[in-house]
Amino acid sequence: MKSSKPQMVKQNNLAYLTQLVKNNAPLSKRELADLSKLSVVTINKLIPELLEKKMIYPYSNEVVTGGRHAVSYRFNEQKNTFLVIKIVENRNELSFFFYLCDLVGKIIKEEELPIADLSWEDFVEVIGEWKRDYPEINSIVLGIPGVEMNGIVKVVDHPMLQGKSVQEELTEKFDCQVTLENDVNAAVLGYAMREPKEKIISGIYYPVEFPPGGGVSIYQKILKGRNNFVGEVSVLPLEVDWSKENILKVDLTKHLLDMMEVFISLYDPHEVVVYGTDERINEEVIHEVGKKIVTKFPLIELPTIHLSRYFKEDYLAGLIQIGLEETNRLLLNEFK
C-alpha cells in the first residue's frame, strides 16, 4: 500500500533531519529549524520520533539566556554497524581482515585471520561470531580478488570461494544485506573518493604472484559491466603469459603502455593510478610510459599517471565507502 502524501512528507522530513544532524551535529531544535527551513513546531513534533528510532540522541543541556535549557542533538553513529571483510595478498599468501565500522565509516574493531586451510564452514562460523557479538550489524561488505557473476563467485584466487553463492548464502544465514566487490574495483573507488567527484579514474594493480587487475571509477561510482567483468585485464589479447612461473618475467613497461592505450581509448580518464610494490614497478617505468604515451596520443590532453604503494589502504577505503552507501540506504528505508 502506497503512503499518503502527508505521510510521505513526514518521512522525507524525518530523513532530511537525520542527514542534517549527521552532517552538522551538534544541533539544537532552533538550529535544525534554521537549516531545514521547517518551523520549530514541526521540529518539536519530529524530534521525539527520531529519538524513539534511536537515529539521534541528546548531546547537551546547556543553560542559555534567561536560565532556559537548550538541548542539542547528535547522530547515533552506532545505531547500526556494518562488517567489512577484506581478502588481501600478504607475503604471497591470502588473509582475511575483518573491520567493524559505524555509520560514519569509523573502524570500531579489527582482526586479521590467516586463510591457510580455512574452509567455507570455518569462514561462516567466524562471521557468525561477529554477528553474535555485535547484533546491530545489518550489512556485510566482502572484498574479493575475483569476480562475482550472476551471484556465483568466479575467477577467484582462492578455491574456498570458487563457485560459491556467497551473497545468497550469507544473506540467508545472517539476515542482513551482503555486498561483494572486486579488490581492485574497491581500491580505485577508495582512491577516487579523495579526488574531485567529476573525475574519471582508471587503475591497475600488479600483485607479486598473481596476474594484474584493473578498475574504473566514473564520478566516484564503480563501472562494473553486465557481468561485473570490467577490469579483468589479464584476459586481454596482449600475448602475455601470466602463469606463476612466468609472471615475474613479464615486461611491465610494455604491458602498462598497452594498458594506457586501452584506458585512454575506452574511458578517456583524468588519472590512472598504478598499484605495485618496488619489486614489481617503479617511477622509472611510470616516467618511460608517460613519455611514450605522448607519441601515441599527440592531440589530446592525457591523464596523469600516479604510482601508489597504498593498495591495501585504498582497497579498505573503497569497501568502507560501499558499506556507508549501503547502510545509509538501509537507514533511510526505516522511514518508509
Automatic annotation (TrEMBL):
Q: Which Gene3D superfamilies match?
A: 3.30.420.40, Winged helix-like DNA-binding domain superfamily/Winged helix DNA-binding domain
Q: What keywords sit in the KW lines?
A: Carbohydrate metabolism, Xylose metabolism
What InterPro entries does UniProt report for this protein, alphabetically? ATPase_NBD, ROK, WH-like_DNA-bd_sf, WH_DNA-bd_sf
Superkingdom, natural source: Bacteria
Q: Name one GO biological process term.
A: D-xylose metabolic process
Function of the protein = Transcriptional repressor of xylose-utilizing enzymes.
User: Would you identify the family this protein belongs to, as annotated?
Assistant: Belongs to the ROK (NagC/XylR) family.
Q: Please give the PANTHER family that the UniProt record associates with this protein.
A: BIFUNCTIONAL UDP-N-ACETYLGLUCOSAMINE 2-EPIMERASE_N-ACETYLMANNOSAMINE KINASE (PTHR18964:SF149), ROK (REPRESSOR, ORF, KINASE) FAMILY (PTHR18964)
Query: What's the protein called, per UniProt?
Result: ROK family protein
